């Protein structure tokens, strides 16, 4: 068991939470408690994660929905399993088809960027393989909150209102009417403490529960999704839904200072975090709060992202292998590019060498790292009428360049931002971690891992520490809690530093670590949102 600093040098909200029997950490207290209730009923960590994930589609619709994608890393019976629950693009879509409609880029909203939603199928598949309780029972808390309503929390209200104002101005087509009927039934976003409910959500979740998600892909719900898409000139068709199946995958990893850091393989961007850590492990970091530490972290992330954006897509379409990208000699090659001055990142040649995150654990040793998301907040802005199904807009990440590895084509998974993380040591689980938030996610993973391994911070302190985010070129955003002298010193090294006052721009994370000797769990939750750790 690694040793952490039990004091928190970055106090914001709370201390780490300790428990023995079980723990669920999420960005919404009601969802965390729903997962904990499932544990107390005799469910395992997998059951708890499913219950919390389904609940989050109701109690945090600003980040995810029934029409989301999902990924999971599951530790059970001495092995780590990966599940890719992202959906493919519609078979009929293509660059040529979009250009025929006068489009030179993929829209952010509407039906065009919608790919097959994977979340309901992911829940069902996890339950089928590893769950203990009946699948129907796991969705009961979500159904209850959707039907009876729940009071809006502060951070949720803030982002709901921001999305409403933006959508009211931009989404004027008739296809978006159902979003406003569902999420702004009073002609506005709900206020803090106001109770919001959705019978459509409840009915749909009940049907997913009753059919183990079959209705969503091959039954009545699939028919509704396909019909609405057809009526509004979307590309998503019934055959796309029928063909969907979550994919079990072998997680990928690198060793970082004696710890194995695990991610889902591409099409996810977890490989970017691993490559950055591969580069960084060649340096020594005697102090966390130093310009040298931050400078090297930022430079490594720039190099890893340049490679990721050029080389990563669905694995079978990649021209450079995972092994090439994570090769030690290639990491050394990229490491030598890091000097004293900020660089403009360019991709190398490896062959030459808006989301919710939750973590769950139980007393039997099962642990789950689970992430689920629409994209850009409420996603596509499309809600299938009468269902409460808010569809994601993951197709927006495809490239319109036919020569790019991530070029748009039918039946393909796009480069995906959402990534769950997991840490092991000596083939034993340390635990799940994640930081949601678009392209911040691998950057958050790197910072959390280094805070834990290099700087011995406990889970809460590792999350509370001020964060940075590389944006593009030499542009870096830092939180307003960042030390002023370090900000100035980074600028002196050529970084274009912007102080960002919006905390949610830097992602929202959860961590659960397990002591292998005692089984005691310790968790941290995101202080930048309404997060909580539910434990017993």
How are the SSEs placed, and which strands pair?
Layout: E1 17-19, E2 22-26, H1 29-40, H2 45-59, E3 69-76, E4 79-85, H3 95-100, H4 119-130, H5 135-138, H6 140-148, E5 150-151, H7 154-170, H8 177-183, E6 195-196, H9 199-211, H10 214-218, H11 220-231, H12 238-242, E7 247-249, E8 252-256, E9 259-263, H13 270-280, H14 291-311, H15 322-325, H16 328-335, E10 356-362, E11 367-373, E12 383-384, E13 389-390, E14 421-425, E15 428-436, H17 441-453, H18 459-464, E16 468-472, E17 475-479, H19 484-492, E18 496-500, E19 508-514, E20 521-525, E21 532-535
Parallel strand pairs: 17-18
Antiparallel strand pairs: 1-20, 2-10, 2-21, 3-4, 3-11, 4-7, 5-6, 8-9, 9-14, 10-11, 12-13, 14-15, 15-19, 16-17, 19-20
Helix pairs in contact: 1-2, 2-4, 2-6, 6-9, 13-14, 13-16, 13-17
Could you explain the architecture of this structure?
The model has no long low-confidence stretch (mean pLDDT 94). Helix content is 35%, strand content 19%. By secondary structure, it is α+β, with helices and mostly antiparallel strands. It is globular, with a radius of gyration of 22 Å. It starts with 16 loop residues before the first strand and ends with a strand.
Main features:
536 residues; Glutamine Phosphoribosylpyrophosphate, subunit 1, domain 1; 21 strands; alpha+beta; 2 domains
Query: Strand count, sense and closure of the main sheet?
Result: 7 strands, antiparallel
How many beta-strand segments?
A: 21
Overall radius of gyration: 22 Å
> What structural class do you assign from the helix and strand content?
alpha+beta
Beta content comes to 15-25%
Low-confidence stretches: none
Strand order of the largest sheet: 1-20-19-15-14-9-8
Instruction: Tell me the count of domains.
Output: 2
Shape: globular
Spatial gap, N to C terminus: 21 Å
Average residue-wise pLDDT? 94
């Amino acid at each position: 068991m690694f040793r952490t600093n039990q004091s928190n040098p970055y106090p914001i909200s709370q201390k780490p939470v300790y428990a023995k029997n079980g723990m669920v950490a999420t960005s919404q207290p009601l969802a965390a408690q729903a997962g904990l209730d499932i544990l107390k009923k005799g469910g395992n960590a997998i059951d708890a994660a499913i219950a919390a994930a389904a609940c989050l589609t109701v109690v945090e619709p600003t980040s995810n929905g029934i029409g989301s994608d999902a990924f999971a890393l599951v530790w059970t019976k001495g092995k780590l399993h990966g599940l890719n629950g992202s959906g493919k693009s519609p078979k009929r879509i293509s660059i040529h088809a979009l250009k025929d409609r006068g489009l030179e880029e993929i829209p952010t909203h509407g039906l065009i960027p919608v790919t097959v939603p994977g979340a309901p199928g992911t829940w069902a598949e996890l339950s089928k393989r590893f769950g203990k309780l009946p699948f129907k029972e796991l969705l009961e808390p979500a159904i209850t909150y959707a039907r009876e309503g729940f009071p809006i929390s502060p951070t949720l209200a803030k982002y709901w209102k921001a999305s409403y104002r933006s959508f009211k101005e931009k989404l004027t087509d008739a296809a978006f009417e159902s979003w406003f009927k569902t999420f702004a039934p009073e002609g506005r976003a709900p206020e803090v403490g106001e109770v919001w409910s959705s019978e459509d959500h409840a009915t749909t979740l009940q049907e997913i529960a009753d059919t183990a998600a079959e209705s969503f892909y091959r039954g009545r719900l699939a028919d509704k999704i396909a019909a609405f898409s057809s009526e509004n000139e979307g590309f998503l068709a019934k055959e796309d839904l029928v063909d969907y199946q979550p994919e079990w995958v072998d997680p990928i990893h690198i060793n970082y200072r004696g710890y194995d850091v695990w991610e889902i393989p591409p099409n996810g961007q977890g490989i970017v975090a691993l490559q950055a850590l591969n580069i960084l492990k060649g340096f020594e970091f005697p102090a966390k709060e130093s310009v040298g530490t931050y400078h090297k972290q930022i430079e490594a992330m720039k190099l890893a992202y340049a490679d990721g954006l050029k080389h990563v897509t669905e694995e079978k379409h990649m021209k450079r292998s995972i092994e090439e990208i994570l090769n030690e000699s290639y990491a050394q090659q990229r490491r030598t590019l890091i000097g004293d001055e900020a660089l403009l990142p360019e991709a190398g040649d490896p062959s030459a060498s808006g989301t919710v995150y939750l973590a769950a654990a139980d007393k039997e040793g099962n642990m789950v790292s689970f992430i689920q998301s629409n994209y850009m907040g409420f996603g596509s802005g499309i809600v299938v009428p009468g269902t409460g199904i808010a569809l994601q807009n993951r197709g927006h990440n495809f490239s319109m360049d036919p020569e790019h590895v991530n070029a748009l084509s039918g039946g393909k998974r796009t480069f995906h931002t959402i990534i769950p993380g997991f840490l092991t040591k000596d083939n034993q689980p340390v635990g799940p971690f994640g930081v949601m938030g678009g392209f911040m996610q691998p950057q958050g993973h790197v910072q959390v891992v280094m805070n834990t391994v290099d700087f011995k911070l406990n889970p809460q302190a590792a999350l509370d520490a001020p964060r940075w985010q590389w944006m593009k070129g030499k542009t870096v955003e830092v939180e307003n809690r960042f030390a002023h002298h370090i900000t100035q010193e980074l600028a002196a090294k050529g970084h274009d530093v912007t102080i960002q006052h919006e905390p949610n721009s830097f992602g929202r994370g959860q961590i659960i670590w397990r002591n292998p000797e005692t089984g005691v769990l310790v968790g941290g939750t995101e202080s930048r949102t309404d997060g909580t750790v539910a434990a017993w």
